[in-house]
Design a protein that fits this description.
The chain has helices spanning 14-25, 32-40, 44-51, 53-67, 85-93, 104-111, 125-140, 154-171; strands at residues 3-7, 29-31, 74-76, 95-101, 145-148. With 172 residues, the protein is of the alpha/beta class. Strands 2-3-1-4-5 form a five-stranded parallel beta sheet, sandwiched between helices. The longest helix has 18 residues, at 154-171. The radius of gyration is 15 Å and the shape is globular. The relative contact order is 0.21. Bound molecules: shikimate-3-phosphate. Shikimate-3-phosphate binds at residues 10, 14, 33, 44, 78-80, 117-119. Shikimate-3-phosphate binds next to loops.
Length: 172
């Protein structure tokens, strides 16, 4: 199975980078959060508000199961998808997992001002980013490839991934 899964924290640039990468590789682009919103006809924020985080995580795992049956897609996953061991195993068994790694300061600069991320609608969002990153880092680091995004444009990151993916493909 040859999907490319982009993982990383909120603000890592998974969606924009994923779109560029899909274009560069001539592959289909899929965003799991978007599929969840389309399927429920609710925004992620509304889902958290009305149904709670556990219900959102169930929807996320369900969508991932569907997406994992695709071939050759570039998939941008929500930042928390890797917390679940079954999700992680499914990702690894159906494609390559690429971690877009970013410093908390970079993440904060990219997400500040936005209101669409329920986990950051708290009194101390920067602290929250640091805590979530600590909790998730080990999961993210199980990735096949790690790409640092600090100080880089999404286009540059996508180009870096394209090059890594193609080099590995030649070796295999
Ligand atoms: C989440 C990240 C969000 C979205 C939801 C939860 C998380 O996606 O899935 O708000 O747990 O980190 P992005 O990473 O695309 O912002």
């Amino acid at each position: 199975m040859n999907n490319i899964y982009l993982v990383g924290m909120m603000g890592a640039g998974k969606s924009v980078t994923g779109r560029h990468l899909a274009e560069l590789l001539g592959r289909r682009f899929i965003e799991t959060d978007q599929l969840i919103e389309e399927g429920t006809k609710k925004t992620i924020q509304k889902i958290f508000e009305e149904m709670g985080e556990p219900a959102f995580r169930k929807l996320e795992s369900g969508v991932l199961k569907d997406v994992s049956r695709c071939q050759g897609a570039v998939v941008s996953l929500g930042g928390g998808a890797v917390r679940d061991r079954e999700n992680l195993e499914l990702i690894k068994s159906t494609g390559r997992m690429i971690y877009l790694r970013s410093k908390p300061e970079t993440l904060w600069n990219r997400v500040r001002g936005g209101k669409e991320r329920p986990l950051l609608n708290v009194a101390a969002p920067f602290e929250r980013i640091k805590t979530l990153l600590k909790e998730r880092a080990a999961h993210y680091e199980e990735a096949d490839m790690i790409v640092d995004t600090d100080g880089k444009s999404p286009e540059a990151v996508a180009e870096e991934i394209r090059s890594l993916v193609e080099t590995r493909a030649r070796k295999n």
